[in-house]
Specification:
Blueprint lengths: L9 E5 L3 H12 L4 E5 L2 H10 L6 E5 L7 H9 L9 E5 L4 H10 L3 E4 L4 H10 L9
Parallel strand pairs: 1-2, 1-3, 3-4, 4-5
Helix pairs in contact: 2-3
Length: 135
């Protein structure tokens, strides 16, 4: 498992659905992640500006109220310590041009809704946040 400075890995989950935030928190908790949650990009930026966090991962919904997800990502990427934190975008969007814009804004991987634990594990392995489970 990926850890920074001897601390458990921490994830910021940004989604307007409380149910999705809860599901992701539970799934990621199985890998030792502690979590912060925000209902939209504006709340997430306010949270990140309130104190320094040592994030290992940001999970962000593509469709969010209050702030365009691209604006959120661009602003987040300018914050000290968050320039290279892996970002997993969670979405129902499949349009290649939308995905390309997200990658240019700093997304590292996509997770399509609906998702399951195996899909989350696969993305964590791709992002090198956990070691592959050998059968």
């Amino acid at each position: 498992m990926y850890m920074r400075r001897g601390m458990p890995p921490q994830v910021l989950i940004v989604d307007d659905s409380k149910a999705i935030r809860s599901i992701l928190a539970r799934m990621l908790g199985k890998y030792g992640f502690t979590n912060l949650q925000a209902g939209d990009g504006t709340d997430a930026l306010t949270l990140l500006r309130s104190e320094p966090y040592d994030l290992s991962l940001v999970c962000v919904d593509y469709n969010m109220p209050e702030m365009n997800r691209i604006d959120f990502l661009l602003q987040m990427r300018t914050m000290p310590g968050l320039e290279t934190v892996p970002v997993l975008m969670i979405t129902t969007e499949t349009h290649p041009e939308l995905m390309e814009r997200a990658f240019h804004a700093g997304v590292n991987e996509y997770l399509m809704k609906p998702f399951n634990e195996a899909m989350v594990q696969d993305k964590l392995e791709i992002l090198d946040l956990i070691q592959p489970v050998l059968a």
